[in-house]
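Translate sequence into structure tokens.
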Amino acid sequence: MGKQVKTDKNVSASVNANDETLNFLRRLVKSGVLELLPSFEKSGITYPAISPFLPDKDLITVKKMLSKLEEEDLLKSKVVDRVLLCPNCGSPEVHSKFACTRCNSENVALTQLIEHKKCGYIGALSDFSKPTGLICPRCGAIFDSNKWDYRVIGNFYQCENCGNRFDKPEVNHLCQNCGKVSTFQDIKYEKVFAYRVADAVVRDIGRELPLIENIRQFLIDKGFVVNLHSELIGASGVKSLFALTAEKNEKRLVVDVSLEGNKNDIVALLAKKVDVNPTRAILLDLSGGVELSTLGKIYGIDVISAKADQKTPAGFEEILTKIE
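Result follows.
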């Protein structure tokens, strides 16, 4: 049996945060909220999943907090979108409008420049359009709808306010939240992030779940010496960290937790099991899935489906009965 080393009931150094931040992370993990996806609201970009945990924080404070946690490697971020934001209030509800390059009127229309093949007259499609159909302004010919009497030369914009024609319109951005009008020069075009709680944080805080505490007390009542967040030195000399270890009469149990049913969780426990060689290795699967249970039979690991806040699972009691 490998040598027992010092244990630590506190969250490990990987969660290097103040009390408020640490409490926030704990509540996220213990509620199963590991991924924070953005939502585009009139007031700005929000993260609905964390609203219950930060009810009194405004959007700017939340954004700064998430950025700081990402800088400290407590959250991992990835870019999921880019969006125009009002430079005044930060709202993503910005409507873009075309405007005349001469008078800045937004009463502009895209039209076609066409040529009458027979007489060579070139003009805007609107010049040809009459109530009875298309008629050439020069020769008065009525275009036959069944024949291609004209050809399209190109497209352009025309201001219906001052008559100005232009290839590229000015673009104005109108904020639907505060009413500010911005140009491409002052509008914000920013990355939008999704965040995920770092794996190291999930592992560390996962060891503090009520379920783990209930199992700890259950094992103590059964006469086991129990340690939370415990390291064992295996045959290789490498330290292996477990959510819980328990010893009694030369029997040793090691317990880990999988919050999401990730295959890597059971593979990691397998590697530690081989090195430490406990009497039983147990993985508490909080995902509600079945994949880990199947793999557990192959790897010789007891996989028990459980919930984060429940009492000692019946499956755990059955395993204890067998080894005693």
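Note: The first strand starts at residue 3 and ends at 4.
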